[in-house]
Amino acid sequence: MPKRVLQGVVVSDKQDKTVVVKVERRFTHPLLKKTVRRSKNFHAHDENNVAKTGDVVLIEEGRPMSKLKSWVLVQEAPKG
């Protein structure tokens, strides 16, 4: 089974080797038929501390590394 890959924006890089990434998803409300935006924060492992606040990045599912951290920073997302 392939690992999930999500794209989001780094909202915090204050922790060592960890970034907090806000991932937004959009869906149509089943009753109102209106587009709804929902966001969730994921803690991701950043081995070399390369990501900075505001960067658009890709994160991938990985093994649990701590209580909150089970995602790994893959790369900065391509521009465009």
From TrEMBL:
Keywords for this protein: Ribonucleoprotein, Ribosomal protein, RNA-binding, rRNA-binding
Annotated transmembrane regions: none
Family matches, as InterPro entries: NA-bd_OB-fold, Ribosomal_uS17, Ribosomal_uS17_bact/chlr
A biological process from GO: translation
Subunit relationships: Part of the 30S ribosomal subunit.
HAMAP family linked to this entry: Ribosomal_uS17_B
Protein role: One of the primary rRNA binding proteins, it binds specifically to the 5'-end of 16S ribosomal RNA.
Similarity field: Belongs to the universal ribosomal protein uS17 family.
Name this protein carries in UniProt: Small ribosomal subunit protein uS17
